[in-house]
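Quick bug: C-type cytochrome output formatted oddly.
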Amino acid sequence: MKLSFLLSALLTAGLGFATTAFAQDDSLVAQGKYLATAGDCAACHTSDGGKPFAGGLAIATPIGNIVASNITPSKTDGIGDYSEAEFARAVREGVRRDGANLYPAMPYTAYAKISDADIHALYTYLMQGVQPVDVAAPETKLPFPFSIRASMWGWNLLFLDDTRFTPDPARDAAWNRGAYLAEGLEHCSTCHTPRNFLMAEKSGDALSGASLGTWYAPNITSDPVHGIGGWSVDDIATYLSTGRSDHGSEAGGPMLEAINKSLSHLSPGDIHALATYIHSIAAKAGQVAPGDTAQAAPLDDDVALMNGTASAGANLYADHCSTCHQAGGEGGNGLPALLGNAALRRPVADNVAMAILEGLTPRDGLANSQAMPGFGQVMDDSQVATLTNYLFAKLGDAGVQITPARVAALRAGGAPSPLLALARDGMIAAAVVVVLVILALLIWLLRRRRAA
Ligand code: HEC
Ligand code: HEC
Ligand code: HEC
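Here's what came back:
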């Protein structure tokens, strides 16, 4: 009797303990899953049609394809043998369990800001919430000298700031949470900040706008004219979760991808925090449109179109665009206006040409929304340029123009695009430059020795 009581008491206590531990782990797994979405880990670590996190996706970089690792808890082919400390070192410092350097195609430069607590949750999720997949990801084979992983130490020396995020005590909790997410897991600056000749972000011009080779990531500082100074915190939050704003912006290209895969899954609190932080970014003019004046009058070619005296641009607009955007560009019936559209206030015409070439889809699952078809098949490069230039002349800044050659480059996926490569592939291009500079320095030193 006594014994059975003791046993059952022990059992109950044991079970109780087990349940609590399980519940704790459960919420930790859920938290880790959420953070993995914020950091978009699955986007790179899952191959097309492959099992989640099993790796194998080849990421194209200027120096060759870099294959994302299997990060499932498989003991044979994944990170099953990683301790939490080894995992933290890989994610924040770019060093693998065996001590080899990772290529910065893995964005450890941004993830360096991740806190210990969030690393713990990410680790718990990957170890307990993800199915192990015992299939090896193909090996990365780069040409010499990049095949030597140790060549990354020089690059890290120059560009890896591996300090954790430190909260600003003068700001409130929402601002600090937003800054933590924006600078770390969400890394907004990889796209929105212009870079210097060594491909490092110009911190003094943070978030003031940069070209990604095809799409232009606009100025999102608080500059009232060139940035989003006129947007409220709520306007920014709405855009980050829906891809739309009342300021004439509809997200396309890489921003739409970020919204679909990551931002639209964040909690309202985190979206609000991100918006609070972005709203506070000091104003910078960034790259400015030449004339810097936006026209405010609707298109008015009706009479000329009837007389047959309208310009080529006006004819293209009437033939392909006015059914949805209306004759004057006012939009309506849920379709956006081109009059006052943010795409026509950019310092470059690329995003308008990209929208015409590829079309534009609203965020996944957004209610009551329509898509714009692409016209890349029905219009040639010079027609796209003529139409784009017509719209800028009439509704935007007449000084902003695009050439058929530039349209051809956009159609082909952009001119060689260090920035997109940097955003997606984490600054590999910079590594090339740094290796070359170091080599040049060594040769120069050797020559001087010989001369002496
Ligand atoms: C932009 C693409 C990209 C994203 C996003 C990304 N990774 Fe990676 N990751 C890579 C690539 C590529 C490698 C392999 C690099 C190499 O072989 O040098 C890698 C390697 C790793 C490794 C080392 C595994 C090993 O032994 O080879 C870990 C751990 C890892 N990633 C975890 C994460 C986590 C956690 C996240 C999300 C917070 C994440 N990654 C997001 C591209 C990415
Ligand atoms: C992969 C590149 C990329 C990343 C990462 C990215 N953006 Fe963007 N962003 C863009 C591009 C490109 C556009 C222009 C889209 C368009 O006009 O169709 C844009 C547009 C915007 C706009 C609209 C500005 C306007 O004037 O219309 C805001 C606001 C914005 N981004 C905020 C952010 C924030 C905040 C983050 C981080 C949480 C972020 N972006 C991350 C590429 C990116
Ligand atoms: C079938 C209707 C339809 C037609 C035809 C159409 N559009 Fe659109 N357009 C849209 C919709 C819908 C959006 C907003 C999509 C979204 O929310 O992502 C849009 C957005 C745009 C934008 C904003 C791009 C940005 O990055 O914010 C521009 C510029 C544009 N259209 C120009 C044109 C031009 C030029 C034509 C003619 C070649 C055209 N559209 C034809 C429906 C249309």
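Actually, after a second look the formatting is fine. Residues 249-250, 252, 320-321, 323-325, 335-336, 338, 341, 343, 351-352, 355-356, 360-362, 369-373, 375, 387 surround heme C (ligand 3) (CB under 6 Å). Closing.
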